[in-house]
Structure formats: structure tokens, C-alpha cells
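subagent[fold] <- orchestrator: predict structure for attached chain, return C-alpha cells only, no commentary.
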Amino acid sequence: MTTPTVVLVHGAFADAASWAPVTRRLLDTGHAVVVPAVPNRSLVGDSAYIRSVVEQIDGPVLLAGHSYGGAVITVAGMADNVVGLVYVSGYALDEGESLGELQGRFAVSDLAANLVYTPFPVEGSEPGTDVSVKVDAFPAVFAGGIDVATAEVLAVGQRPLAALAFSETASAAAWKTKPGWGIVSTEDHTINPEVERFGYERAGLKSVTELDAPHLVMLAKPDEVVAVIEDALSALS
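subagent[fold] -> orchestrator:
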């Protein structure tokens, strides 16, 4: 079987650059990699967009999703050429479940008290609401464990998530038919690690790796993240 192309899907309050250290390592070892920009407008729309990106790739695809990106790959992973899923500090939703519902099963994280809600215009409709992280709280609750100077840059360049994405439900759960791997960040202050553990166990992932790492584990421990992706590629090739 052809080695899958790795598609890295970023989450909320971040962008494709959040995968940079992992991307560099995968490219250096000869892997085909695509790191699309997620619109972060709605779970339905974002999943459809990522699925369209995937379906235009020739050959099999391994989808890796960080944080909210985990919810996106759960739905987008229904594309026929997706052969596996890697959840990185991510949400493994069930069909008919929303981010809010899954999070609501567990104690809230430090992120909840540090969110900012900002209206944005929607042509021909009521204004939408963007959700972002307070800039001064960002280094501690979202980028803990990352160099402070880097965290400050990430804070002022964060990509917000439309509030709609928290309430929309997943139309499918690709983990029911595709093999999956997971990473739990035990020092995560953005998503309660129990949310990650619960979703992964329910999904019956082939392997779950727990790392003493913050939410942005791809920046804090890229070698360990690449190792999980490499394990998945080996199993699928």
C-alpha cells in the first residue's frame, strides 16, 4: 500500500504554523504533508472544507487533528481515501454530539474563564460571534510550556473560532470505521485531559500515548508527536 499523505489539521486559536515543527520533521523524512488553513467558522463548514481538501489528494490520507481539529477530522475523515486518524489533544466526538456537550461531561478547564466574545458581520444574516483567548492569559492557559516570547507572538496572532462551532453536532464519527491513534496532553489547561481520555477510549483507538505536555504539544514535544504519526503510518503502509 502507498504510504499515506499526512494532512495536519490545526485547531481553534491557532493556525497551520502551530504544526511547523512537526511538518518540518515529516518533510525531512520524506513524507508527503499538507497543512491546510481551517476557516474556523463552523464545525459543519470546516469539516466539509477539509474533506474537500482531502478528496483532491491522490492516494490514501492520514488525518491528524489538534484540539478542535480533532472534531473536524472526526467528520471529514469519512472521505473514502482517509485510512486513519490521529487525535492530538483533540476532541473525538460521537455522531450527534457537539463540543459543548462533550466538554460538559467534565470539569471546566482554565480556558473557560479567559475567553473573549467579539461580534463579526455576516452578510444577509445576524452578526456572528468570534471566540478568542484573552491575550494576557494566552501564554498560561493555551501556550503553557512554550517559550514565553513565542507564546506572546501566538497570542496576538491567534485565529478565533466562531461560537457556532461549539454547538453544532458532528454528522458522522469516522473513528467508527477508521483506525485511530491518540495523544493526551496531561498538562493541558485548554481541554480537560479527561475529555481527551474519554473520547479516545470510547472510540476504541488502537493506541493512546500520554505525554507530560501542554495543549500545544506539537510545539512543546514535536518529536514525540511525530513518533505517534510515524507509528500510524507504519501500521497503514
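orchestrator: received. Logging for downstream: The chain has one domain: 5-105+159-236. Residues 35 and 216 are 16 Å apart (CA to CA).
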